[in-house]
């Protein structure tokens, strides 16, 4: 298996050299795997990637699925909890793909998936690939092909000089819109109020998206940000339309509450901020 999680025979690859500095290693309590605490999403290289989405043979990625089509992508899928939760709940013809930048984290999610696939066929419609989504998402996914792009509890990159590493940005939103079909949606959740405000402002200033849901669940514990500069205008609280959307949408509650990070935030009674925007 290659670095991307795809067999090399399944893709036409460009092999690029790793070029980023190691930052810090942490040992996961789950398994003793050693995982880097962070990888630089702006770094070029370090991954073998397909030259074009047309060169990816998805039948190798979703074994046993006839004509697989990826319709949902979870960016920064971490240990994979969200897609494993969704596997048995999404439409039978829908394949869901998680992309994760950290090697050991991706390995654990992939390993768990392989074990689950032998117990239930629905897990064949889930796959995790190891890549830098911020750089290489467009090498895998075709234009206007997605129903949903999910950013559950993305890294907050607190420091102002690191804001350009944030995965929702002015530059990236039009590129995400390119991958979504009309009516396709972006889901974001976070427990960091300053990041919520940042993502909200990026969506609101974009002409490519309309808001479907803005939901705040407060328990009084938003993750502390020492660099937070209070925003000039507070964002309004959840409205009735958002509450109704949350009740009826199949992904909204999952993205907020059923990811690994979402479960952790529930345990510590942290605040949760959910945004859903639709491509116009
Ligand atoms: C805070 S964790 C959240 C994980 C998961 N979404 C959840 O809610 O449990 C953020 C994850 O995004 C991954 N990540 C950050 N930047 C990424 C990128 N450019 N491409 C792929 N994964 C990325 C990190 O390695 C990390 O596992």
Automatic annotation (TrEMBL):
Keyword list (alphabetical) reads: Methyltransferase, Nucleus, RNA-binding, S-adenosyl-L-methionine, Transferase, tRNA processing, tRNA-binding
Highest taxon of source: Eukaryota
Which lineage do the record's taxonomy fields give for this organism?
Eukaryota, Rhodophyta, Bangiophyceae, Cyanidiales, Cyanidiaceae
HAMAP family in UniProt: tRNA_methyltr_TrmB_euk
Q: What is its EC number?
A: 2.1.1.33
Q: Which Pfam families match?
A: Methyltransf_4
One term under GO cellular component: tRNA methyltransferase complex
Q: What does this protein do?
A: Catalyzes the formation of N(7)-methylguanine at position 46 (m7G46) in tRNA.
Location within or outside the cell: Nucleus
Q: Which residues form a coiled coil?
A: none
Recorded family membership:
Belongs to the class I-like SAM-binding methyltransferase superfamily. TrmB family.
Q: What is this protein called?
A: tRNA (guanine-N(7)-)-methyltransferase
Grouped into one coarse class, the protein's main location is: nucleus
GO molecular function terms attached to this record? tRNA (guanine(46)-N7)-methyltransferase activity; tRNA binding
Q: Please report the organism this UniProt entry assigns to the protein.
A: Cyanidioschyzon merolae (strain NIES-3377 / 10D)
The residues the record assigns to binding S-adenosyl-L-methionine are 76, 100-101, 132-133, 259-261
The broad enzyme category this protein falls into is transferase
Q: Which residues form the active site?
A: 155
Q: Which reaction does it catalyse?
A: guanosine(46) in tRNA + S-adenosyl-L-methionine = N(7)-methylguanosine(46) in tRNA + S-adenosyl-L-homocysteine
